[in-house]
Design a protein that fits this description.
This protein has six domains: 122 residues, Immunoglobulin-like, CATH 2.60.40; 92 residues, Immunoglobulin-like, CATH 2.60.40.10; 92 residues, Sandwich (Immunoglobulin-like); 104 residues, Immunoglobulin-like (Sandwich); 91 residues, Immunoglobulin-like (Sandwich); 89 residues, Sandwich (Immunoglobulin-like), CATH 2.60.40.3620. The chain is built from two helices and 52 strands. Strands 33, 34, 37, 38, 39 and 40 form a six-stranded antiparallel β-sheet that branches.
Length: 614
């Protein structure tokens, strides 16, 4: 009897793999003959389930044979099934396969009559992770080392990344520190950085492809003692001759910090070979006061820390000692009348206006003092008390005399005071300030007067300016004028013309109340809000009313709110109580629609406004 009549039909195992390829796009056994299943195809194995239709027909062996060529037989490689034979299904694992390799497989069954084969299937194994070696670690320092590796086998897929991973625990992975050293196979060199001194590290070369990441053998090494690390603190409490300095040792480099402190000098990047302040040893913060410095001088400072590896420095920070600026006081019987509402008091040096010198002229003092009385008696005091030298002038001669029997006497006026601390001379010139320039009503011919507001200690006034330039001038003389070199609100004697970019009505404020720190402002004013014709989109410009010294505008308002705004921006705006407006104050409500005349009075400590309905 023929073997084909003795044996039942053998249904071969189907084989499945993620990258499985078959001769046809959907290869199947004849559905009249079999059913099959494939599991867990990997880079080196595949699991196959077979099914024998007629069991118990005398099979002595069954399994799967496979090869890299078509039509495999049991003379090629085979895996026989060794499990229970009472069931029709059997499972066989093909192992030891090569990655990314196409295989052909057939189920087989053998009895005394011979061997029969099932239908043939083909599949391709997946890639494997790369194989590589780890190079020896060399050039070890306190915080770095040289390493590398060699990708000897790509695993059947492109190597997209390679390098060395390293850390302080065994078997480091990509989640630890790592280098990135190109791609592909072959040798590579890595620079391991950012390590701590005197510390044991572990390292492995790695390579990554689509199958995952492979690692080379692990190597270990210990870094040398590293330099310590220190930070330099910002200088504080700076005076003419001293400053408080400090730093912190944040890292010991793996060895004891035996010295720390501050290196300082007038040259950049000072070292311990120069001037130092010693501050003990070990980790942590420290501070000290540097004394005996020169006035108005820039100094450089660096924190330092020393261990067995050497000395390390923090950042170079700089500071400048204060200038030897003199401050004299102007006590007299005029003070309370001239500065109402202030903390100033008559004949109290520490509660009097002042004059000061500058960095560039430390013995030349200057300042502006208002004297309101018909006759004003006063002196120069060199201390905020009567203990230091104080000067009068018996004959109003301009010579300061510490033994003068008489005070200096002047009539009412806004005085520019100058004093020479070396020559012991002074001047007191009454000044009246205004605005001059081709943007002003009088052009460059003469200044347009401003008004002094004693309660505000500033000169103020409104006027129409064209798009040109302005300066502040006094006494119809160029001997007394201020401009602004940067047009930034700060004034310099004889400084550059101040540009006016837009023709409009402006409110000018000149502040000479702070010796040698004179300032100005020039602002346009408008009204904005959802009660105004253009809402919050744009300002309704106000005009200057020279008769009443207020800004004014007449508008048709709806129910809503409004605010006052300078220069079409929100840097300076007023709201809140109409009788005492405040910067950034609340919106001002309009409860009834109608035509309103709105005024803004800026000649007060807190501006005020009115809005009367016609």
């Amino acid at each position: 009897m023929s073997i084909y009549r003795i044996l039942a039909v053998l249904i071969t195992a189907t084989i499945f793999f993620a990258a499985c390829t078959k001769e046809n796009s959907d290869v199947r056994l004849d559905p009249k003959l079999s059913t099959s299943q494939v599991l867990n195809v990997k880079h080196d194995s595949a699991t196959i389930v077979g099914f024998v239709v007629a069991a118990g027909s005398g099979f002595t062996e069954k399994g799967v044979c496979y090869n890299t060529a078509a039509a495999p037989t049991i003379s090629n490689t085979k895996v026989s099934y060794s499990g229970e034979n009472t069931k029709a299904t059997f499972t066989v694992v093909l192992s030891g396969l090569s990655y990314t390799t196409k295989y052909y497989a057939r189920a087989y069954a053998t009895n005394t009559q011979g061997t029969i084969y099932g239908e043939e299937y083909s599949f391709t194994t997946l890639p494997d992770v790369p194989a590589l070696t780890t190079a020896a670690i060399t050039s070890v320092s306190g915080n770095s080392a040289a390493g590398g590796g060699n990708v000897t086998d790509a695993g059947g897929a492109e190597v997209t990344a390679r390098g060395v991973c390293y850390g302080t625990t065994s078997n480091p992975t990509l989640s630890d520190s790592k280098t990135t050293n190109g791609n592909g196979t072959g040798a590579f060199v890595s620079e391991l950085t950012g390590m701590k001194g005197n510390t044991k590290y572990y390292a492995r070369a790695y390579a990554t492809n689509s199958a995952g990441t492979g690692y080379g053998p692990e190597v270990s090494f210990t870094t040398l003692v590293d330099l310590p690390a220190a930070t330099t603190a910002t200088a504080t409490a700076i005076t003419k001759v001293s400053a408080v300095l400090g730093g912190e040792v944040t890292y010991d480099g793996g060895a004891e910090v035996t010295a720390r402190g501050l290196a300082w000098g007038t040259e950049a990047n000072p070292t311990t070979a120069g001037s130092v302040i010693e501050s003990g040893s070990g980790l942590g913060a420290f501070a000290d006061t540097l004394k005996g410095l020169t006035t108005f001088t820039m100094y450089h400072v660096r924190a330092y820390a020393t261990n067995s590896a050497g000395t390390a420095y923090g950042a170079d920070i700089t500071f400048t000692t204060l200038a030897d600026i003199l401050t004299w006081y102007i006590p007299g019987d005029y003070v309370e009348a001239s500065y109402p509402g202030s903390a100033y008091a008559n004949w109290a040096p520490d509660k009097s206006p002042q004059v000061k010198s500058t960095i560039t002229a430390p013995d030349k003092l200057e300042g502006y003092v208002y004297m309101a009385n018909a006759t004003n008696n006063w002196k120069f005091a060199t201390q905020p008390n009567w203990n230091g030298p104080n000067y009068g002038d018996d004959n109003n001669s301009g010579v300061l005399n510490p033994n003068a029997a008489n005070n200096i006497a002047k009539p009412a006026g806004y005085y520019k005071l100058n004093a020479d601390a070396t020559a012991l001379t002074y001047t007191a010139v009454a000044t009246s300030w205004g605005l001059i320039g081709d943007a002003t009503p009088n052009g460059w011919n003469d200044e347009t007067a401003l008004t002094y507001f004693p309660g505000l200690t500033t000169w103020r006034g409104g006027m129409h300016l064209t798009a040109a330039s302005i300066k502040f001038r006094a006494n119809h003389s160029w001997d007394y004028n201020y401009g602004s070199n940067a047009a930034d609100g700060n004034l310099q004697a004889g400084g550059a013309n101040i540009p006016v970019s837009l023709e409009s009505d402006y409110y000018l404020i000149l502040d000479l109340s702070h010796p040698n720190e004179y300032t100005y402002s020039a602002n346009r004013w408008g009204v904005i809000g959802d009660a105004t014709p253009d809402g919050w989109n744009s300002d309704q410009n106000m005009t200057w009313d020279a008769t009443n010294n207020v800004f004014t505008v007449t508008l048709n308002l709806v129910v809503g709110t409004f605010k006052f705004r300078a220069n079409d921006g929100w840097d300076l705006n007023y709201g809140g109580d109409p009788n005492a407006l405040t910067p950034g104050g609340a919106n001002i409500p309009i409860t009834t629609a109608g035509t309103y005349t709105i005024t803004l009075d800026l000649g007060k400590a807190l501006p005020s406004c009115t809005f009367a309905k016609k």
